[in-house]
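Protein modeling request. Please complete all fields; requests missing the sequence field cannot be processed.
Requester role: graduate student
Desired output: 3D structure, token encoding
Chains: 1
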Amino acid sequence: MNILRAIWNGITMVKQTVTNLLFIIIVVFIIVALTDVETVSVPDKGILKLHPTGNLVLQRQVTSPFGQLVSGSGGGAETSLVELTNALERAQNDERITGVVLNLNDFSGGAPALLSELGNAIDRFRDTGKPVVAFGSSFNQSQYFVAAHAEAVYLHHDSVDLFSGVVMSGYGVYPTYFKSALDRFKVRYHVFRAGEFKSAVEPYLRDNMSTETRQINLSWLGSLWDQYATTVAERRGVEKRAFKEYTQQYARLLGENNGDGGQLALAYGLVDELVAPHEFDQRLEQRFEMTDNLAFINHRDYLTATELSAGLERPDTKKVAVIIASGVILDGYQPPGTIGADSLAQLLQQAQDNPDVGAVVLRIDSPGGSATAAEYIRQKVLHVQESGKPVVMSMSGYAASGGYWIAAPGNRIFAMPNTVTGSIGAYALFPSLSDTLSEYGVNTDGVGTTPLAGALDPFRPLVPDMRSVLESSLNRTYSRFVNVVGDGRKLNQSDVLALADGRVWTGNDAMAHGLIDSFGTLEDAVASAALLAGLTGYDVTRLQVTLSPSEQLMRRIIDQGISVCGTLCNVEDPISLIPGAEEVRWLIRQQAAMSRPAIYLQCLECRVQ
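Delivered output (609 residues):
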């Protein structure tokens, strides 16, 4: 008994310690945020430090301080593309900013198209004549793609990172397959799909990737990789032959260089110099002509300090409304970072009702989700167009499956060459646990007034009539998807069917097949929308889900705490230390999205690694 009491007291003490520690950290975040926000100022002659942390996203999710803490790694789990591009845009004509330093050590990566848009923003900044340099202890693939847009890339010569130098591992899609596990536990997943290559359901049917899916995935992944290689080779002046040798034979080359990744990267022209941190400061003093102490300002602080002078919308001026549709498509009202049918429809209604709004740009970054929600949003887009206001679609990282469903009716569709799109297909999943339960003596039996009574009970086998109903409904949805694409893109049914079957396309392929109209950024889509609406002078207004005062305060606290604490407040994400943690999180999100019987238009394989 004494031993049990001692164990219980120990557990209680650990619980109290962890709770107190979390409370202290949150209080520090609040104090730092509320005391520092009013004192941020731009130095008279300073360097803008672009310091993205976590994943690059189109729209950050609303996160509590506790959630922000648990999601890890020093600077927050997500950085929005808009905050980085806005900082670069404001700094272009700001005489106080002499140049930009890229700090990518805490940057995890992002969709290829998002990385390209960030790279383009860096190029535009460099066009003003101001220098951009990058420095890191090492560079992973996403980090290096961004760094390659700098005019000079420096590497820590004494780095002891596990993967030193520049490591570019290529693109891959590696789903987790469950068939043997499901068989072992006698769980039967009834799978219904429309589209020969709708591979989202394969993990429930197989233990490996099918030959057809393997070929399709390799095709569009190869297109993305070729675009990556071309960009890096052009920005760094490296021959594509050398790039291919470096990436295809990296293990051998590293061994021949005694494991020195920095020297290997230098030999292939991927970096300009190997330096120590204090030597990098000397290079900055020379390049930025700053003989006194170097003055830096973090991009988040810079945005805060320049917010009032960033320019206000002009009254009585027509506007192009930009609405962000980012995340999995679900029914109802959803917070930022997830597309809710009702919440997005509400924003579209605001644009339709506002007489000052002359056109709309729907900015899409989504692998899809609920078919019902996607159709509801599409109908709302049509209503806006019927009111006389054009709706232009701007695809970002992903606009696949349900993401393409809502994009199809656009007056014009813009995408990046490495946007992932298409995946025109549908599927439905229904689990049956009757065999599992019977192993433990648990059985279900009863009577009903029709053949469909209790047919969706997962504790019962799937009855033939319900199977027929599901198949008919799914085929109807797929036919509807084909018609939606045909109507929106002015293609006949046979042309759409040749592009459908759940196949994934890159922006380059989508352009060749007529699934998009032009390559371009958000700015290009806005200009196109204004032209279609006949607007000569216009402002851009962003419509977004309104956060409550408490949510706004939390977001401000998080942003300021991150900005000031930096690596000082770095708390290692304990979940991230678990192998396959990201895959587990992904599966949890998918199961949450599939919490009720429905037909889904979702491209799970679009998540490139």
